[in-house]
Known about the structure:
The strands form five sheets. Strands 1, 7, 8, 11, 12, 13, 14, 15, 16, 17, 18 and 19 form a twelve-stranded mixed β-sheet that branches. This protein has a three-stranded antiparallel β-sheet with strand order 4-6-5. Strands 2-3 form a two-stranded antiparallel sheet. It is globular. It is built from 20 helices and 21 strands. Strand 16, helix 15 (451-465) and strand 17 (470-476) form a beta-alpha-beta unit. The protein has a domain at 82-243: Alpha-Beta Complex (Dipeptide-binding Protein, domain 1). Helix 19 (535-546) packs antiparallel against helix 20. The protein is α+β, with helices and mostly antiparallel strands.
Amino acid sequence: MASSQPNKLERRDYLKFLGGTGVVGATSMLAGCTGGDGDTTTTETEGSGDDDTDTTTADESNASAGGEMVIGMQADRTDPLWPHWSSDATGAAFMRQMMNTLTYVNADGELEGDLAEGPPESDDAQTYTFKIREGVQFHEPYDREVTAEDVVKNWHAILDPSILAEKTEGSLYEDYPTAGRWPFPGLLWGEGIDSEERVYASGDYEVTFELAKPNAAFPALVSIGQCSIVPMEAYEENPDQIGAVDFGTYGTGAFMYDSGQAGDSYTLTRNPNYFKEGENGQLPYMDSVTFRIIPESSVRVTNLQTGDIDLAETIPSQNVEDIDNTDGLRAISKPGASHLEHYMNIRGFEPFRLYEEDYQPDAESPAYGTIDEDGKKMRKALRLATNHEQVIQTKFDGKASAKWAPVPPFDWSYQEDRITKYPYDPEQAQQYLSETGNEGFEFTAWATNQPRFVDTATIVQQTVSQAGMSMEVLPKEKSAVWGPVIGNWDTNGVSHDDTGYESHFEDIGSGLDPADYFAQVLGGNGINYCFFGHPESDDLIQRAQETTDQEERKELYGDALEIVTDMVPMNGICWPYVNQGVSESVQNYQVKRSSFRFDLDAVWME
């Protein structure tokens, strides 16, 4: 049977690849984990996201051509500007303007065709054939038509980096594991799977994917930016330069790379041969887009108010009302798809342990056993001792919702009546501590050294103290927080003896399909950073991934929600909003659930 797990060496290499970026894990790459100064995130919540607060749509028949848009970004890109290697949110924002994937998720969360004419249907959720649009041109100087062979060559390189490393003199494909392969273990790569046989041209403009097992979410998974289609000869001819700031990158998108300076700004110019049209002619409407790196949130807000930038990628929650009341400006606050988590070491740290048996390092599949009832009570105690609403009001100025389930309230698989919630109840938390003999319980929580995480951890520290818990907050660099979790990754957890890891605060992005969210609690899955596994919920989630009937999927996911929320695999904190500030001169701009997911081809400047 094909393995669905990346091996430990690959995991460590991947951590090295991520370095200090703002993104970790496949879900992060799929939808874009937020990071930086901790002012915003992306998420949605119950009763939020009013139509008049998340868009600047206008009558496109009045669209005017020309003009330049300047966007203030909170962080610089950290990876090469080559999609197969890039995993940071800022680089993804740039490359979305320059490149296209087979499908994409629009601002309404609907899946559409991009380079493909539309999302393909599949009777068995295992064989998918994409019809490639004819006449699409790569950027100059590779201005030739994109064919099925180009798509196949890209995907072979994504799934097996050694293919390119062996065929060129460059070493970058060896140095940078391809980020785009991580959503597809057990589907298109892994033990016993030949990636080249799984992806092939079935016509001049037709590409077929034969998955090793059914997956109903596959058409959405191929929309991640790391699976963009690029002219592979650009790498083959310039293996040691491609993606560098002073060299550039190439794709099929609305804008072409012009110039950049690390830590300062990056400018993209209009692609005159872009294949999409709008209501008022060929896209894009604007002549150029400049991304300016402005790490300090207060400076971004000031630059927006003075007109030095037209859009602030993120603004603090506390500034939303002020921006919205400023003449010529508008604040956009929209629920999104990332979630702020308090992870617990449920396999390696005894007080939180999932099963009575010791965790089994190096096991080829997730270990199950007898539920440790005391561990379950301790995890519930932490949930009940965490005042989620206080975090939301204090840190996010009310622009977030509590995270009670693996999926957010806006997702079609969310089912209120199937979820166990844990509202703040320090007395009940103390009761659980007493029942387990853990009065005066002490533990540590690592927090990525950014205001979002340290501030949140500090608030939680204060609220759990009311239940008799003592939580020490230890700020660390991002790679140091994730290092033990990913660097020592094993199907069945992380050793407390080896790492000292007990809990940590971080966020991660999701949002393409319910399968993306549920993968984080699927036993043995490579992005399951809480290392939760339960035979019944695992079976339900796997079955839901394999059927194309949405009602059947919803019922299966509902059954899984009952099990997972009762078991408390992690102390989910909240789903924060995407908060952005935009000039009223920017027309037809829509915010996506992930803050870096700009689509600027149909935007114009008035």
